[in-house]
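Researcher: Good morning. I'm working through a list of sequences from a screen, and I'd like to move beyond sequence-only analysis. For each chain I'm collecting a predicted structure so we can compare shapes side by side. This is the next one on the list. No need for commentary yet; just the structure.
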Amino acid sequence: MIDINESVMQFLLAFVVVAPLLGAAAALLPAPPGLRGSSPDQAVLRHGVTVTGAVLVAALVLALGFDHDDPSKMQATTDVSWIAALDVRVHLGIDGISLPLLVLTALLTFLCALYSYAKPPAGPSPKAFVALVLVLESGTLATFAVLDLLLFFLAFEMVLIPMYFLIARWGGAGRKAAAWKFILYTLLGSVVMLLGLLLIGLRAGTFDMVALAADDGRSLSTSVQIIAVLSVGIGLAVKTPVWPLHSWLPDAHTAAPTVGSVLLAGVLLKMGTYGFVRILLPITPDGMHTIAPYFAAFAVAGIIYGSLACLALARPGAGGDLKRLIAYSSVGHMGFVLLGIATLTPTGVNGALFANIAHGLITGLLFFLVGALKDRTGTTDLDALAGDTGAALYGVAPRFGGLFAFGAVASLGLPGLAGFWGEMLAMFGAFDPAAGLNRPAYLVFVALAGFGTLLTAAYLLIVVRRICMGTPKTPAETAPATGAAPDAGAFLDVRRHEYAAWTPLVALTVIAGLWPALLLGLTDPAVQQLLAGGKS
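Model: Good morning. Structure tokens for this chain:
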């Protein structure tokens, strides 16, 4: 790694958080004549690539300058007073828990901007599209960087409006209803979460997350901690999403444009689980110890429910939508993340953090692929795509079919790929949970979660068989099934801009699977300190 001055690190972190907001404002201005290219639309899409690229470079330099020998220490910290009367401070910082999520967010947003530049989104003005994506990026990055409870809440809420408009204005069928469902669910959850955050801050006398973590809950009675865990946990559970608060997710994913689905699955869902780790585990340890078995039970219910829903959508004749199926798969995968957190053990929490990153990479890739499949065929209906003999991607577009199969086997947790380690560690943590938790109950949770992995493999292999295998159809045979006009180029193989957007996700999925210590070496020291009450 490289040695970077602390003041430069502080600037880089502030730049990463603020630059997308400035870029969003600039996107709404008229493009200078010399930068318009062939059209103003092209100029603003190129502007999105430039801003997100600059943010990604800054995030990577920040990662290179990070002290990997002491990842439990908050680094690149900025701490200045903002609202003195409430003791609210602009407190920024990163450690081994937040750094991977920061880099993941910057990467996925850049890839989405690159993909949109090559294939502009159909809908209203690209100016508004680029501005909304940049505001969304800023809010997500701020969520992972702020260390004040009220600032966390503001950043957490900041992403709702841009995602609402991305779904409502650039989405597909049913987009308005899906957008309203998304924002109503998340807003109602956030109101309850705000009450819990205020309860913590007012009872403890500070909203500073570092000070609260070091206090280890001593300033809060057990009853206050339980109430805080329930109220904050509801808001975080909606965003995660945890069964049965998940019902907004399939509709939102089905209606959202490709870029919206990638960002929703890749980074927005991580905000909820990050809140569990950053806020509830260290600040309300006694409350979490009391409520953790219930979280684990809901997590396992989500694993089984999500897998069964996917199996129902995958079977022939069900009229299942591929985007909806992948959305339901996220309910199951995020169930493993919550299960790992609910073990209250370093093994389980490290597994949850690893599964967070793996899910962002793999599901982001799958939504990119399904979006490209819809562009080629005009549909994401599994029955329409597969027909009687299968869509035969291996035959008509072998590289595309290979990438789809890769994403599917990575999602089912094939050893050697990123999806394996997080889910395995979460189950290891549940096999031997923290002292005082009901081990027989957790053994039941492990058994059910293991059964969920079998169901996951079943539905994903069914989807691969129906999408990738079969006898290739002629364009005339394809048209009636998909509703697309007969076109010999309907099933184009992977194109250059798609290689550019998808290759980093494939490479990182393999690297994380073969070299898990790269990520676990960052998270483990920070998790050990967090669970020890913030003491070194």
